[in-house]
Design goal:
By secondary structure, the protein is an alpha+beta fold. It is built from 14 helices and 20 strands. β13 and β14 form a beta hairpin. The structure holds flavin-adenine dinucleotide (FAD). The site of flavin-adenine dinucleotide (FAD) has 40 residues, from α1, β8, α6 and β16.
């Protein structure tokens, strides 16, 4: 079937429902622009659900002298934390020090030290780490997050899981964020402000007709095709940014993207406190060990070249081994393949700045406007979850050079759905939820507050008993919650729910997941028939 999208012309047509596409759609819709967004799979189905999930300045980027990126990200951490205290929270990072820690050979800092202090022979001296943390504390106008401190690992509980050779550590602050929920909440807020969000909708071509873009999309479930028109095209296709330029729009552009795969492994909980570890390797790389979903530990990440966005990224055996060996250099408990309960992998769509190694390629974003076709197109390269809101603001500055944008920057300080409560208010909100819904266990209430914030109540409605929430799919997932996710949060199948709206995939078994999928399939059929 071929449809014409109501023959309306949007101001912006955004390709890609990752964090950058949804962030730009929200910002633009809030400024009164008409926006249509197409995502070929589920929202956050690519890189934006596969990150390390940190709002961070990127301590290691200081060694690359990426001061602008680090400063912008540090300032941004607290702005974001305030806007979404349900899905983001402060974390302390313990950085054990050992004299054998080395730089990656081609960082500007290691090159400088090789000249002025050749006797360090590529090692990262303790004073340099302390200097980096001093900058980290002071570059970004920190107000909420506590400053760096020093730990004696021989006494501190943080030393207990580590090998005895680690006696000293630094502890600094960054923030956690539920990456895929961040995307979904941005999409919901964009829609609430007038944007049209289409999932399972692939852009198959975009050509200019006069001063408008004519965009063809295909519904990936029904095969139906639709034609849309827009004044400006936003290419936020992440790893596919080059594919859009070359095969969907057929632009003659030399801009390139460098695809760098990063994998994570998840094990059962490896230690009892709530802090993260920042481990430095003898190869100059770093990995994190992070408390994850209450009962697990997240370890990552790797940096490996990835040839083609159409190859689904997977954690390769050598990446598993790399992460296990890295952790085994630090923890007393020696990990093996049997300890891994889940892995995930994503592809960083980095701007190709010609750096020699994947680790060294810039994590900064680059926005390029192309007007060669007649109407403007904005291509988004690189970026981090942490800088998505700033990236959207910069994108709207560029949009303003081509379309009339009457309203200025507005997103700083405006909460995402469910985030309208104080930064330290999660415990109060959970306690109040348990008072009003006494059947909720502590872990269940906390899970709902962390996912839905002040909207948890709306999701639970007037339920007086657990049975009032309908079918129980396992691990506290109920029909009421799944209905909410299907009607409010674009979920279509079990995977959307258990890996991108929450992480209950870690707890549900295969028959439970199948039952959820079947229930959702039937429910989707009923919803379609009722429309
Ligand atoms: C391993 C790893 C760890 C990371 N850790 C962090 C971290 O801790 N903190 C941080 O700040 N950043 C981190 N990042 C970076 C961050 O995850 C990415 O910069 C960000 O998610 C990129 O978002 P995006 O929207 O550009 O791309 P994506 O999330 O990949 O979104 C692009 C979307 O476009 C869609 N699309 C493509 N082609 C089409 C088409 N033809 N039609 C319709 N839709 C299409 C895709 O399906 C996809 O969903 C990490 C990245 C990786 C890989």
């Amino acid at each position: 079937m071929d449809n014409r999208s109501e023959n309306t012309v949007s101001d912006l047509f955004v390709i890609g429902g990752g964090i950058n596409g949804c962030g730009i759609a929200r910002d633009a819709a809030g400024r009164g622009l008409s926006v249509t967004l197409a995502e070929m799979n589920d929202l956050a189905s690519a890189t934006s659900s596969a990150s390390t999930k940190l709002f961070h300045g990127g301590l290691r980027y200081l060694e690359y002298f990426e001061f602008r990126l680090v400063r912008e990200a540090l300032i941004e951490r607290e702005t974001l934390l305030r806007a979404m205290p349900h899905i983001s929270w402060p974390m302390r990072f313990v950085l054990p020090y050992h004299k054998d820690m080395r730089f990656e050979a081609d960082t500007p800092t290691s090159k400088l030290l090789a000249v002025v202090m050749p006797w360090t022979k590529g090692r990262r001296p303790a004073w340099l780490i302390r200097l980096g943390l001093f900058l980290y504390d002071h570059l970004g106008g920190r107000k909420i997050l506590p400053a760096t401190s020093t730990l004696d690992l021989r006494d501190a509980p943080e030393g207990a899981p580590l090998q005895d050779r680690f006696v000293k550590a630094y502890e600094y602050s960054d923030c956690w964020v539920e990456d895929s929920r961040l995307v979904i909440l941005n999409a919901r807020d964009a829609e609430a402000r007038g944007a049209r969000i289409m999932t399972r909708t692939q852009v198959t071509s975009a050509v200019c007709e006069g001063d408008l873009w004519r965009i063809e999309t295909r519904d990936t479930e029904t095969g139906d095709t639709t034609t849309h028109f827009a004044r400006m095209l936003i290419n936020a296709a992440g790893p596919w940014v080059g594919d859009i330029i070359q095969t969907k729009v057929r632009l003659n552009s030399s801009e390139g993207v460098r695809l760098v795969r990063g994998s994570h492994i998840v094990t059962r909980k490896l230690y009892d406190h709530d802090k993260c570890y920042f481990f430095q390797g003898t190869d100059g790389r770093i990995i994190f060990a992070i408390p994850y979903e209450r009962d697990f530990t997240l370890l990552g990440t790797t940096d490996a070249e990835h040839a083609d966005p159409s190859l689904t990224p997977e954690c390769k055996p050598e990446e598993r081994d790399y992460l296990l060996n890295f952790a085994n250099e630090y923890f007393k408990q020696q990990l093996s393949d049997d300890d891994i309960v889940w892995t995930y992998s994503g592809v960083r769509p980095l701007y190709d700045d010609g750096a020699s190694s994947a680790t060294a390629a810039t994590r900064d974003y680059t926005l390029k406007v192309d007007t060669e076709s007649g109407a403007p197109m904005l291509n988004v390269f690189g970026g981090k979850i942490t800088t998505y809101r700033r990236l959207a603001e910069s994108a709207l500055d560029k949009v303003g050079n081509h379309l009339t944008v009457e309203k200025g920057r507005w997103t700083a300080g405006v909460p995402l759905p469910g985030g309208d409560f104080p930064v330290d208010g999660v415990e109060d909100l959970s306690a109040a939820l348990r008072r009003d819904y006494p059947f909720l266990g502590a872990d269940w209430a906390l899970r709902l507050v962390r996912a839905y914030g002040t909207e948890a109540r709306e999701m639970l409605g007037d339920a007086a008993r657990a049975e009032d929430l309908g079918v129980e799919f396992g691990a506290t997932l109920t029909e009421a919650e799944v209905r909410w996710l299907m009607t409010r949060e674009y979920a279509r199948c079990a995977d959307d729910v258990i890996w991108r709206r929450n992480k209950l995939g870690l707890r549900l078994d295969t028959p439970q997941v199948r039952a959820l999928d079947e229930w959702m399939g039937e429910r989707a059929g009923q919803m379609a028939a009722a429309e």
